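Hallway conversation turned thread

IA: we were arguing at lunch whether anyone had actually written out Spore-associated protein A end to end. Turns out nobody had. So, for the record, here is the sequence (140 residues) and right after it the structure tokens. Reply here if something looks off.
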Amino acid sequence: MRPKALLVAAMTGAALAATSASASAAQNWQTVTSTPNMTCSAYKQHKVSNNVNFKVCIVVNSNLDAQAVLVVQNNAGVAVSIGGEVATNFGSNVDCASSTLNPGFTRGCYSPTVHVGSGQTLIADARLRLNGVDEWWSAS
């Protein structure tokens, strides 16, 4: 069962004209850089550890291309094992590779970039597998 979905209305090209960087796709975990065209849920603590937080973001660029990102933050004093998936209503889905996340690091799993057009409501859910335990998160 999935919680509420992160809803983001895709803005018109005029509203996004100030940002021209395009979103990039990746299946493996990458460094996360927040940008003005990123809309994110609040961080949620994973049920396995109060020191590992995750959130779901949607990035929409000036060309009305979008992608979702599962962002994981490790505030624990030990390395953790992460993996997961991102599922959207706009065809940008990805399985996130299993990886080790060291203490003090934040990483993101980026779904592929797809064209969404204007006026569409974008929904993204993400599942974080932390040390073998899954938890879904999304927010409105």
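OS: looked through it. The chain has a mean pLDDT of 84.
IA: good, adding that to the notes. The two ends are 16 Å apart (CA to CA).
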